[in-house]
Amino acid sequence: MKTLVDIDELLLQKAMTLTGAKTKKETINAALQELVRLRLRQELISVRGSDILDMTLEELTKSRQKRTQKHVGGKKS
């Protein structure tokens, strides 16, 4: 998707240096991925110790395995 946006050039150059990205597109995509990963991590931390996240490591591992098996072959549920 093409989108026209004004981006702070100095900030973009710093991000390119930090990520090692060779293009602006690569840099922006890496930044967006990192933002999403960070926010999801923050959400997970915020529910730690609550009843919402009350799984053992074994239960979490089984859940991941089930989710991975559902996505094999391009099938997403």
% residues in beta strands: under 5%
User: What is the tally of beta strands?
Assistant: 0
Number of helices: 3
Unreliable stretches (pLDDT < 50, length at least 5) are: none
Order of helices and strands: HHH
Residues in helices, as a percent range = 55-70%
Domains (count) = 1
Structural Rg: 18 Å
Q: Quote the average pLDDT.
A: 84
What general outline do the C-alpha atoms trace? elongated
The profile of the biggest β sheet is:
none
Whole-Å distance between the termini? 25 Å
Q: Class by helix and strand content?
A: mainly alpha
Brief summary:
The protein is mainly α and 77 residues long. The chain starts with 8 loop residues before the first helix and ends in a 6-residue tail after the last helix. The model has no long low-confidence stretch (mean pLDDT 84).
Which properties best describe this structure?
77 residues; elongated; 3 helices; mainly alpha
Walk me through this protein's architecture.
- It is built from three helices and no strands.
- The protein has helices at 9-19, 24-47, 57-71.
- The chain is mainly alpha-helical and 77 residues long.
- The protein has one domain (9-74).
SSE topology sketch:
Elements: H1 9-19, H2 24-47, H3 57-71
